């Protein structure tokens, strides 16, 4: 009996050995191991990004509404947005529209964040007492949840109880409260200001990391050649941080172009739908009004612009590195 048991166990081990060896070979191959390690991330991307994107395309090509299944309409939703919806696109370029607001909001927010972020990075790169503490405090606007910090700005910009209007009125600089969120021009520029305040730390920290990789020998050589501070910045600092800056701008543009929380908390697209961007208008039409297909079509309008910008930035960076 003992001999039969040992023979059976030996046979099982003999059959299991090739399987264990095959599995070991798979994990020892770099190519196979890489795909196995990437599989969880790929599954998450497929479930939470690829599937919603494909579903959005399907909705955009139909006429579905909440509680009312529609039919295939092709590009009719996109044509209607461009030809009949003056909130989304107004041929009169002097008047606000969703497309114009999105590009205006993104462009001037990037200009402000690049300028302030670069200045702060240059300052934080200097040696002074308390530098590490200030660097940590610099991140606060970026790490605070957007909705929470925007609620604070909603109170600050309030025309009746806001601290800005109250302070200016009490020192005699103005006689009437300033409608920061009630005037279309002021509302859009207030949104840009808050976006700059929140996004500047991202630029500052990223550029600071780029600045710290620049060898000091280059600055010393430039100074010996007679270059002043401005020329050292223009010919040494700026070219060497350009690869970092382009990637930071790329991520920031994508994030700003699709910004939702900040705008929806502060203005909800108002006053009179004049500060809507792609994301807020898509939510307004798709979820609040219940027109799922039209909301999906509005959301998809962002994709070609972001794809084109991404291709251009990556092409520029590859050309610059080559």
Q: What does this entry look like structurally?
A:
By secondary structure, the protein is mostly helical. The chain has one domain: MetI-like (MetI-like fold), CATH 1.10.3720. Helices cover 73% and strands 0% of the residues. The chain is built from 15 helices and no strands. Helix 4 packs parallel to helix 9, helix 11 runs antiparallel to helix 15 and helix 13 packs antiparallel against helix 14.
Write a concise keyword list for the protein shown above.
0% strand, MetI-like fold, mainly alpha, single chain, 322 residues
Give the topology string: H per helix, E per strand. Answer: HHHHHHHHHHHHHHH
Main CATH class: Mainly Alpha
Q: Helical element count?
A: 15
Rg, alpha carbons? 28 Å
Number of strands: 0
Largest sheet: none
Gross morphology: globular
Mean pLDDT: 87
In the predicted model, the low-confidence regions spanning at least 5 consecutive residues are none
From the helix content, strand content and strand pairing, which structural class follows? Answer: mainly alpha
- Any idea how many domains? 1
How many angstroms does the end-to-end distance come to?
74 Å
The CATH architecture is Orthogonal Bundle
Content of β-strand:
under 5%
- Portion of residues within helices: over 70%
Examine the coordinates and then state which fold CATH places here, giving the name of the CATH topology: MetI-like fold
* Assembly state of the chains shown: single chain
CATH superfamily membership = MetI-like
């Amino acid at each position: 009996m003992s001999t039969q048991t040992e023979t059976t166990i030996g046979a099982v081990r003999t059959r299991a050995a090739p399987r264990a060896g095959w599995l070991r070979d798979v994990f020892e191959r770099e190519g196979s191991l890489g795909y196995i390690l990437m599989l969880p991330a790929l599954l998450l991307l497929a479930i939470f990004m690829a599937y919603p994107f494909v579903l959005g395309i399907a909705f955009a090509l139909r006429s579905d509404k909440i509680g009312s299944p529609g039919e295939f309409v092709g590009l009719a939703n996109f044509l209607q947005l461009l030809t009949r919806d003056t909130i989304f696109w107004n041929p009169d370029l002097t008047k606000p529209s969703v497309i114009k607001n999105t590009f205006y909001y993104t462009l001037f927010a990037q200009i402000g964040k690049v300028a302030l972020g670069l200045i702060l990075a240059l300052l934080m790169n200097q040696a002074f007492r308390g530098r590490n503490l200030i660097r940590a405090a610099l991140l606060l606007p970026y790490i605070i949840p957007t909705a929470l910090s925007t609620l604070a700005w909603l109170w600050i910009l309030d025309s009746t109880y806001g601290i800005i209007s109250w302070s200016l009125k009490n020192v005699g600089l103005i006689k009437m409260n300033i409608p920061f969120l009630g005037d279309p021009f002021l509302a859009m520029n207030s949104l840009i200001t808050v976006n700059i305040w929140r996004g500047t730390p991202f630029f500052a920290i990223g550029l600071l990391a780029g600045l710290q990789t620049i060898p000091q020998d280059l600055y010393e050589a430039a100074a010996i050649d007679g270059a002043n501070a401005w020329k050292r910045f223009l010919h040494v600092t700026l070219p060497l941080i350009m690869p970092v800056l382009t990637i930071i701008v790329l991520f920031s543009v994508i994030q700003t172009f699709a910004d939702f929380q900040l705008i929806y908390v502060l203005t909800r697209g108002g006053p009179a739908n004049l500060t809507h961007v792609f994301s807020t208008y898509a939510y307004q039409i798709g979820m609040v009004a219940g027109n799922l297909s039209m909301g999906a079509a509005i959301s998809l309008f962002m994709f070609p612009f972001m794809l084109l910008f991404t291709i251009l930035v990556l092409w520029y960076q590859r050309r610059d590195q080559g």
